[in-house]
Fold:
Amino acid sequence: MLNRVLLLCLALVWTVSVSVTAQDVAEGGIDTLSLPLPAPAQNVVAANHVYDDGEVIDVNWDKSPDDPENILGYIVYRAETDGAFDSIRTLLPGETFFSDDNVEDEIPYKYQIGVIGENGVSLSGESELAVATWELFNFGMWNTFLWMFVFCGSVIGFIISAKSGRKLYIRKIGGLEALEEAVGRATEMGRPILFIPGILDMDDVQTLAAITILGKVARVVADYDSKIRMPVSRSLVLTAARETIKESYTSAGRPDGYNEDMVQYVTDEQFGYVAAVNGIMVREKPATCLYLGAFFAESLILAETGNSIGAIQIAGTARPGQLPFFVAACDYTLIGEELFAASAYLSEDPKQLGSLKGQDVGKVIAMFGLLVGTAAMTLSVAWQVPATQWILDLMNNLFTTN
Amino acid sequence: METFGIWLAALLTIGIISFLYKDNVLYKACESIFVGISAGYWFITYYWDNLYRKFYLGVTDMDNPHRFFLWIAFALGVMMLTRLIGKIGWLSRWPLAFIVGATAGLYMMTYFVSNAFVQVGATIKLPPDFGSVGSYISFGMIALGTFSGLVYFFFSKEHKGVFGGTAKLGIWFLMVTFGASFGYTVMSRMSLMLGRLDFLFGEWLGMIN
Amino acid sequence: MKKQIPILITATVGTVLVLSVFFPPAKMLGEDFSLFFDIIAVFAFFLGGGNLVRVHFIKVYRRKSDWVYSVVTLVGFTMMLASGLFKLGGPPGISGSVTADGSYLNTMFIHIIAPLSSTMYALLAFFVASASYRAFRAKNREATILLIAAFVILLGRTPLGMMATGWVWESLSIFQIPNLAVWVMNVPNLAGQRSILIGVGLGVVAMSLRLILGMDRTYLGGDND
Structure:
């Protein structure tokens, strides 16, 4: 293996140094090397990459008959209509496809494939000229468009239905039911509630989810006349959080209860922020700690420190890698989707609850796809039932991205 | 300077580790240094990287087709600062609204495709080793686990009866997932502490080579 | 009005970016957003940095408890700003890298931020141990399943796993702990991950839709200021 890699490196160096010679071979068709060369690649086809913004040309070819035993790799050459060929990429044996994303639109290019052997490079014939063009609509994403349409349509449909007064049932979510109780406990104990919105900025959806939940939590805090403490690691989150808490206090009829110092910027540095939050925890001993948003390695440090001070802890994140630590160290954990559903659930607004019903429609579609797809696969492949093949193809078409 | 740097790093390391015993003067000092220095570091990074390189060099480059857009971004940034001016403070909501709208719009599609769509598609794809009894069991279990996990996340129906039983199965699968992530991470976390101990006893005290 | 325009901005920008995915010529809008965001974030930092200075300055001014540490924070912050803005110790000129070798900023990063960061990170070794202990004490079925899975993966990644189960017959080799660990990772773990990811995907779409439709807008604050 090592020898092959070394040989490939040597061949690459050699290839660059003799590229001029190789081009002479291509142009003049004269083999200047006396040793046998590998068989060339064949049927080089270059074509516009469909459904893009005119920046890519796809190149396909048939493998050299000597691939993989007697070749070290492939070189892709490119030239403009009357220009000379330049080497643009070296690929490993076995490759038969290359996407050239370094082209300018509306300029025709032709391609040639070189097969690297131990004794030199053999060149294929030239491809036809190809031009990268852009398309207005990505028809390759028809299935995404379809499902998006169905899903968004059902969310909006349930919202409208709720608006017209229809009662919608949503089951109780343990972690969210416990939120009010946790705020009440903090009020009784006269201690603050610590709200940690993760460590990412406002350009992350989990932070957005955290901010929307903050609105509901701050409303309960304002109603109970409790205290909220929110150290943040991003300046934009500081601004958004302040606006959110202020709005919650105003809507609770207690605008005077709001204080800008409830939210405090610490630092953007991940562990610097964690060090400061740990300090706040052990010194101020909040009765309730809420960790909602995007968390990384700090999840366990925060949750364990919160545990050591005996706080009620509710966490929620969409990062599967951090969920186990929250599950192990917190009283309640909102797993993935529950984090995004929380603000709608807590709002008790029928319209927002309607959107949760819409989410369930998405799950029904996914479950339907799983059931039909796996059944069709088992029947078609394991028991060789030919009639099910078209169902399998249909399901693959419906759930495969382009 | 190098020796001073090593001593400083060693003291800071001990200061942070001392938090495991209890909050103390050394930890508080380390925490304050960490917050002040790192906040300054990030501001400088943002300043040179974003304001100077991305904005200033961007708008002064006459060949840059995005020059006009950069000025819009700049204007939105300035609006952010109106928060400091009471009367027109409400203008700072515009950049915030822009960011929230853009994040929602951008990630709505990204998450839908990469999470929901691709994962369903991947579950009904033929696994490479499909054919053996073991592969049938594994294939079935992946489908069953994914299905029951989704039942667990269902909001519209109470977890009772057969539905509740399936949701319970979903929780078990989720617990295996969490356990697997937990077990997978433990070793790497241990090696981090070994790295710091290696620094203290090796590079600083020279007790180990 | 003060709230209507921002709602309109959110709705317009959000809708355009959703649709841009289906229209290749509009693909670059997503990249432009990240550039926009970076520039807005710098201005936001003036508010964040200002808040940091204000909070600690008030603490020092009013001689609140532990005010001395606030002095340390303020000195550290100012030192870094001075080193970085004037590029002290680094290559001269506006185009010289602020984090070049020898610059004060880089030196402080290497000798202060890096060791502090890695030590905070390393504390996880202890916290993982205490969390494991807690999980071990929890006596319910879910916690037991979590622990068994963790134990299998942990053993499977060490030589102990093979030592303990290497004697198992070849035909039952799936029950050798390293093989079992691979199976757990590839099958039940994958299934759980997939259900989480699918749920997250749907949850993000619904939440984004609520934001774009202006149903959830507490982040825009009240009308009265």
User: Anything to note?
Assistant: The first strand of chain A starts at residue 42 and ends at 48. Chain A touches chain C through 87 residues (CB under 8 Å). The mean pLDDT of chain A is 88.
